[in-house]
Design brief:
With 277 residues, the protein is an alpha/beta fold. The protein has helices at 24-34, 62-75, 89-105, 131-138, 149-156, 163-177, 219-232, 237-253, and strands at 10-18, 38-50, 53-59, 80-83, 111-113, 144-145, 180-183, 192-199, 202-209. It has one domain (10-253): Ribokinase (UDP-N-acetylmuramoyl-L-alanine:D-glutamate ligase, 3-Layer(aba) Sandwich), CATH 3.40.1190.
Length: 277
């Protein structure tokens, strides 16, 4: 399923829909397109939400999730896969089965798993009984996972209140799943931010400063999709993470100021075909 002379890298996002347009499938499509990729989707759930929070969730039947994935891969193919909100045991199992088949046909196909558990406003996006399935069925298929600190705590049971504890948690996740781990440190207090990548070459720390403001809805989805796009374009993981972080930071800095709550980013900044890299 890898590209053979394709003009655009193909990225399949498997995630939920955000009616407010700031996160989920909508953020993924915007990000992939802005970075010069071709976005395809398999929608796992519909949400009724805005910047103030999630009002309702309508799951997509697992069989239909699988059919969306199959239809795309059988015809168009993919150069990277990205997962976001999945919901419950049946949905995770359905996605894992299709990803397993995709990896069987295309070993080495990049798979970016964003273990989405809770929305920015606090709504649960992963059912409690699905955590074990996520850990043992889906995460071992990931080339790289992108948990934030609360998600990493749920997955490992470890308290994470410092960069040193982030290193311990990242190692635990890598030992448990086998893939690379990008542990996002945005939930630590203070103006200095550290994201930590642990892969086969060791630990890489990415440092930055926090941008003031409330317009950060969809940052996790955006970052994971940006990483998937760069990996699909043949960029090495460390460079893909660095470029994705820069893209997200600019999208936050140029946020359009919409909504009354946690507002969306501006994904279209620096619009182009990806040649700027």
């Amino acid at each position: 399923m890898t590209a053979q002379g394709a003009a655009k890298a193909r990225i399949l996002s498997i995630a939920g829909s955000d009616s407010g347009g700031g996160a989920g499938i909508q953020a993924d499509i915007k990000t992939i397109t802005a970075l010069g990729g071709y976005a395809m989707t398999a929608i796992t759930a519909l949400t009724a939400q805005n910047t103030l929070g999630v009002r309702d969730i309508l799951p997509v039947p697992p069989a239909f999730i699988r059919e969306q994935i199959r239809c795309v891969l059988e015809d168009i193919g993919a150069d990277a896969l990205k997962t976001g909100m999945l919901g419950g045991v049946a949905e995770i199992d359905a996605v894992a089965r299709e990803l397993t088949q995709a990896l069987r046909e295309s070993p080495g196909l990049p798979v970016v798993v964003d273990p989405v558990m809770v929305a920015k406003g606090g709504a649960a996006l992963l059912r409690a009984d699905a955590l074990d399935t996520l850990m043992h069925t889906l995460l071992p298929l990931a080339s790289v996972m992108t948990p934030n600190l609360p998600e990493a705590t749920c997955l490992t049971g470890l308290e994470i209140a410092s960069v040193a504890q982030m290193r311990v948690a990242a190692r635990r996740l890598r030992d448990m799943t086998g893939g690379a781990v990008l542990l996002k440190g945005g939930h630590l207090p203070g103006d200095d931010l550290v994201d930590l990548l642990l892969d086969g070459d060791g630990v890489t720390e990415f440092s930055g400063t926090r941008l003031a403001g409330r317009h950060t809805h969809g940052t996790g989805c955006t970052l994971a999709s940006a990483i998937a796009t760069r990996l699909a374009q043949g960029v090495a993981l460390v460079d893909a993470v660095e470029q994705a972080r820069a893209y997200v930071r600019a999208a936050i800095a140029q946020a359009p100021g919409l909504g009354q709550g946690a507002g969306p980013l501006w994904h279209a900044h620096g619009w182009g075909d990806g040649s700027e890299r």
